[in-house]
Design goal:
InterPro entries: MgtC/SapB/SrpB/YhiD_fam (IPR003416), MgtC_SapB_SrpB_YhiD_N (IPR049177)
Pfam family, one: MgtC
Distance between the termini: 64 Å
Strand content: 15-25%
Number of strands: 6
Largest sheet: 4 strands, antiparallel
Shape: elongated
Radius of gyration: 29 Å
Structural class: alpha+beta
Family: Belongs to the MgtC/SapB family.
Domain MgtC/SapB/SrpB/YhiD N-terminal: 19-140
Order of helices and strands: HHHEEHHEHEEHE
Transmembrane segments: 12-30, 42-59, 71-88
Number of helices: 7
Helix content: 55-70%
Length: 237
C-alpha cells in the first residue's frame, strides 16, 4: 500500500526522462566503442550511463541534492572498479585505458541526466565522442613521428657481458671509453648471468648521439674478453 500512496506521476515522468536520456547518450558513446571493436562496447556504456542515472535519481528523490551528492561519490568509485576490468596487460603493453576512461565518462553522463541536467549530459557526450574520434588522427601523427635521440633527454645504459676473470679489466675499459667520449658513468654495477658477468654502466640523463654510443659498443664488442655489448635507453621521468 505504501507504494501506491507514494506514487507520483510527475516524479515517474521525470525519472523516465532522465533514464531515457542516459541510455540514449550512453548508447551513442558505446556505439563508437563498438564500432572500433573494444571490450566495453555499446551495451556496457549504455548500461553504465543508465545505472549511474538511476542511482543519482533515486538519491535525489530520497534525500534531495544531499542524497545525489552522496550517491555520486559511490558511483565514481564503483565505476573505477568496473573500468579496471577492461584494462589488459600484454607483456610490456597495456590495453584498455581509453575504454576504461570512456566508461567513466559514460557514468558521469548518466549522472548528469539523473540529476536533471540533460543539456550538460548531452554536452559531455559530445565531448567524449569528439575526444575518441577527432583526437585519434593527432595521436597517430604523434606516434608515427620519428624520435631524434639527440633531442631526447633519457637515461642510457651500456651493457657488456664478459667472463668472471676479466670483469675488472673490462670494467676499467668501459670507464675509459665513456670518459674519452665525454659520457661519464653515474653508476657501474655488476650482476651474475648464466653466460658470465654483465657490467652495466648507467649514463647521466643528457642529450647523446646514438652514433657515438654505437661506436663505443662496437669497440667493446671487438674485445676478446667481451661476449656481448649493447646499449639501451629509457625516457627520464
Amino acid at each position: 500500500m505504501a507504494a501506491l500512496t507514494s506514487f507520483n506521476p510527475d516524479e515517474l515522468l521525470n525519472t523516465f526522462i532522465s533514464l531515457f536520456i542516459a541510455i540514449l547518450l550512453g548508447t551513442l558513446i558505446g556505439a563508437e566503442r563498438q564500432y572500433r571493436q573494444r571490450n566495453a562496447g555499446l551495451r556496457t556504456n549504455a548500461l553504465v550511463a543508465l545505472g549511474a542515472s538511476a542511482f543519482v535519481d533515486l538519491g535525489m528523490r530520497l534525500m534531495g541534492n544531499q542524497g545525489a551528492t552522496q550517491v555520486l561519490a559511490y558511483v565514481a568509485s564503483g565505476v573505477g572498479f568496473l573500468g579496471a576490468g577492461v584494462i589488459l596487460k600484454e607483456g610490456m603493453n597495456i590495453r584498455g585505458l581509453n575504454t576504461a576512461a570512456t566508461i567513466w565518462c559514460s557514468a558521469v553522463t548518466g549522472a548528469f541526466a539523473g540529476a536533471d541536467h540533460p543539456a550538460e549530459a548531452a554536452l559531455l557526450c559530445a565531448f567524449v565522442l569528439a575526444g575518441n574520434t577527432f583526437l585519434r588522427p593527432l595521436v597517430n601523427m604523434i606516434e608515427r613521428a620519428p624520435i631524434d635521440e639527440s633531442q631526447t633527454e633519457a637515461t642510457f645504459e651500456i651493457r657488456v657481458t664478459t667472463d668472471d676473470g676479466s670483469r675488472d679489466a673490462v670494467r676499467e675499459i668501459v670507464e675509459e671509453r665513456l670518459e674519452a667520449a665525454k659520457y661519464p658513468a653515474l653508476d657501474i654495477r655488476e650482476s651474475e648471468r648464466e653466460e658470465g658477468v654483465e657490467i652495466v654502466a648507467k649514463l647521466a640523463a643528457t642529450s647523446v648521439e646514438a652514433k657515438e654510443l654505437d661506436a663505443i659498443v662496437d669497440a667493446l664488442g671487438k674485445l676478446d674478453s667481451v661476449a656481448h655489448a649493447t646499449w639501451t635507453s629509457r625516457a627520464s621521468d
